[in-house]
Amino acid sequence: MTTEVAASSDVDAVAAGAPESGTAEYENEPVPAHARRSLTSVAAVWLGFPMILTCAVFGGLVVYSLGFWRGMLAIALGNAVLTGYVGALSYLAGKTGKNFALTAIGTFGRQGYRAVSAFLATVVIGWFAFQTGLTGSVLAGSAGWDARWTALGAGICYVAVTLIGIRALSVIGLVAAPLYLLLGSVAIVLALRHSTLSDALEYSGGAGATAMSMGAAVTLVVACFIDSGTMTADFTRWSRSGRQGFWASGAAFPLGNSVAMVIGGVIVALGAARSPATDGGNFLGALIDTGGWLVPVAIAFVFVNLGSVCTHCLYNGAVGWSQLTGHKMRPLAVLLGSVGVLLAVLGVWSQFEQWLTLLGVVVPPIGTVLILDQLVLPRFGFVARESAIRWEAFGAWAAGAAAALAAHLWAPQLSDALVAMVAAALVFLAARRVARKGETV
């Protein structure tokens, strides 16, 4: 069991010879007390991450499929799941100061954690490539720019920002969130010229026979950020306590993510989305079509907005692989970022969305097992012994993933993510009960 780390003065720590928190990223050790950051600073890291066009797209797809009120219910349910899930993992991170890889050692074993950490650290690089390619695609469709050259330039900028470290993620979050709120509100005001709020409230959806189920919609909301949400410790380990870690993650779930999705849903319900069946609530085209000052602002918005998610994903991946390889975060950010940018420029990113979303449904068991093993069960005296590989954790992960895939294929009315969490929890609890009996014999 670990004890909560209290914060101390940065000045005192530097005077004592500790490294300054502005330069050290503590990839391979818990963040020490002197380097912890304020609640506002850590919350800013999470705030701008989900407040992105991609979430507007997904929110719009949900409302297009289910109608306004049922769509809003799906968004609320999905964010409630993320709030509890990411909040619990963030509490653990703030309490221990450990990043995701270090946290996973305790649950999956000294060697076993490598498989889990490598899996997630690679998936988020896929999301980095996807969002970098999306930057070029969005500006090609909306402003007529060359998609590949735009993706290349944007990717280089995203890598450069990531190299600054956790400080840059705080700043970009503080810029990205207000800008999203401003332009999202402008897009809604523009849409109200040709529609009314009553029209939006009465919107019944447009998907018809192809509409997704409520369970599938909730899964879509959860899967959008389940990967980085599971790796929240990479960000919230900088919190001064477990409680502050929990509240910092609340800036994203439910706040930032809900706002981003609701705006996209309202855009669709008002009839202002160009292609709601494929692009959901993407409101960039409406801003650029208006002309004037909105054109340069909208273009800057794309870079800041998608740059926010790209830098966060690349930071996740670099921190994860730094723990696995023993190297520093920044050189790995350059290497992994270069791979992601290359995939974006080659156009491979366009093949990623369905694959990454599918992977998203097998991720929830990982965090579920971590929460049970390190937060819940120790309160009841279930403290596991250290080992190279903890097979009960891997068994629960496999069971949860298998249940989620089965639900995806044969029970589409259910939420894959929730099925995965419940199955993993039941299997892990049963396995720990059996393991504890063996340990006491």
From TrEMBL:
<feature type="transmembrane region" description="Helical">
    <location>
        <begin position="112"/>
        <end position="129"/>
    </location>
</feature>
<feature type="transmembrane region" description="Helical">
    <location>
        <begin position="171"/>
        <end position="192"/>
    </location>
</feature>
<feature type="transmembrane region" description="Helical">
    <location>
        <begin position="204"/>
        <end position="226"/>
    </location>
</feature>
<feature type="transmembrane region" description="Helical">
    <location>
        <begin position="355"/>
        <end position="377"/>
    </location>
</feature>
<keyword id="KW-0812">Transmembrane</keyword>
<dbReference type="Pfam" id="PF02133">
    <property type="entry name" value="Transp_cyt_pur"/>
</dbReference>
<feature type="transmembrane region" description="Helical">
    <location>
        <begin position="246"/>
        <end position="273"/>
    </location>
</feature>
<feature type="transmembrane region" description="Helical">
    <location>
        <begin position="331"/>
        <end position="349"/>
    </location>
</feature>
<feature type="transmembrane region" description="Helical">
    <location>
        <begin position="293"/>
        <end position="319"/>
    </location>
</feature>
<feature type="transmembrane region" description="Helical">
    <location>
        <begin position="149"/>
        <end position="166"/>
    </location>
</feature>
<feature type="transmembrane region" description="Helical">
    <location>
        <begin position="72"/>
        <end position="92"/>
    </location>
</feature>
<keyword id="KW-1133">Transmembrane helix</keyword>
<protein>
    <submittedName>
        <fullName>Cytosine permease</fullName>
    </submittedName>
</protein>
<dbReference type="InterPro" id="IPR030191">
    <property type="entry name" value="CodB"/>
</dbReference>
<keyword id="KW-0472">Membrane</keyword>
<comment type="similarity">
    <text>Belongs to the purine-cytosine permease (2.A.39) family.</text>
</comment>
<dbReference type="InterPro" id="IPR001248">
    <property type="entry name" value="Pur-cyt_permease"/>
</dbReference>
<feature type="transmembrane region" description="Helical">
    <location>
        <begin position="417"/>
        <end position="435"/>
    </location>
</feature>
<feature type="transmembrane region" description="Helical">
    <location>
        <begin position="44"/>
        <end position="66"/>
    </location>
</feature>
<feature type="transmembrane region" description="Helical">
    <location>
        <begin position="389"/>
        <end position="411"/>
    </location>
</feature>
